[in-house]
Amino acid sequence: MTKLAVFGAGRIGRVHALNAAAIEDVSVARIVDPIASPERDALARCLGAEVCEPRDVFADPSIDGVVIASSTDTHAELLIAAAGVGKAIFCEKPVSLDFPTVVSVAGAVTQSGVPCMLGFQRRYDPNFRAVRDRIASGAAGRLEHIVMHTRDPAPPPVSYVVRSGGMFRDQAIHDFDIARYLLAEEIRTVYAVGNCLIDPAIGEAGDIDTAMITLTSVSGRFVQMVNCRRAPFGYDQRLEALCEREVIYVANRPQSDLVVASASGFTTAPPMNYFIERFADAYRLEMEGFIDLLRHGTEPLAGMREGVEAQRLAEAALASMRSGAPVHLDDGRWVPDAV
Ligand SMILES: NC(=O)c1ccc[n+]([C@@H]2O[C@H](COP(=O)([O-])OP(=O)(O)OC[C@H]3O[C@@H](n4cnc5c(N)ncnc54)[C@H](O)[C@@H]3O)[C@@H](O)[C@H]2O)c1
Q1: What is the mean pLDDT of the chain?
Q2: Distance 164 CA to ligand 1 centre (A)
């Protein structure tokens, strides 16, 4: 039996805890969340888990791994603590909102040698993964450019915005990661423009709600990202990869496959409403990936390196937007040994 502890019983912690517990011979034995709530206690009951303090997890030799799905500002400390006692780690992105902290924690965790995986679940989405596999197989020919759309169904509340680290670090970080995943190389130039076009309260809180970001890879290929906090029809999550012989599309996934046709036209269901539904398969598969890492050492699709590099692009986008000029990055990156 593989025994896990889950930190954070909120939106995503619940998803990970239930996915982990559904895997054969995995038990979520402990839940840590300092905010007592009926949801936390119901989750613990449903898993047969004990609600406890962090120190109980780190002192318990029977716990093989931890799932860190608590608020972002707790990740760095929990990562260091878990690595210090040799627990395998699954941690949600981002490691921290402060980039120097991301780099130093990545260095420390890497040097500790504990198996560690980060929550870039889009890599485990069967569609996104199929695009990568098709390009890697050579079937499509050389990838030349990518266009990606990420639009949330509706702007988040300002209380969320002020703690999010801004749209680049909070939302676009998944697109930066997918750009690197599909290109299979690093980015050399980031050029970002952004504005607050939807909700003035987001602007007053110092953030943007609409951005266009152009990435140029080391070999000169392009990615056009469209990131936005609203789409009138729901969650908009699409991609097209133009290759030498094919264009590969990932379309929005509808809530049902029903099509109603009448004299006034064809009506289809709206897209799955938000990330918990849209990426349900991806969250399940990434948790299976974590258990494979823990049990067999299988390399995960996203580790500390992906966390550092995606966030480096988010920082560059912010700098580009503020300066109005492209930001040029060095080619040689990810140097955990030098940390
Ligand atoms: N990969 C993804 O698709 C994805 C999606 C959503 C959230 N996230 C990330 O997951 C994290 C959690 O997001 P969420 O939406 O579930 O937030 P949430 O606010 O719903 O849940 C966070 C939970 O952490 C708890 N918590 C706070 N301090 C804690 C501590 N010291 N120890 C244990 N628990 C603690 C809170 O009480 C809360 O219940 C964030 O870092 C977020 O960026 C990733």
Answers
A1: 96
A2: 11
Rounded alpha-carbon distances, angstroms, from residue 103 to 28, 108, 172, 214, 325: 30, 9, 19, 24, 25
Rounded distance between C-alpha atoms, residue 65 and residue 31, angstroms: 12
Whether this model's pTM surpasses 0.85:
yes
> pLDDT tens-digit profile of 74-87?
999 999 999 999 99
pLDDT(328) > 80: yes
In a 3-state reduction of DSSP, which class is residue 88?
Answer: strand
Pairing of strands 210-217, 222-228: antiparallel
Same domain, yes or no: 182 and 156:
yes
Q: Is 123 helix (H, G, I), strand (E, B) or coil?
A: helix
Do 126 and 109 sit in the same domain of this protein? no
Tens-place pLDDT, residues 142-191: 999 999 999 999 999 999 999 899 999 999 999 999 999 999 999 999 99
227: containing domain? 122-280+303-338
- Does ligand 1 lie within 6 Å of residue 136's CB atom? no
Domain boundary among 73, 101, 121: 121
CB 65 within 8 A of CB 88: yes
Q: Is 278's C-beta closer than 6 angstroms to any atom of ligand 1?
A: no
Report which of 5, 3, 71, 59 is spatially closest to residue 32, judged by C-alpha positions: 5
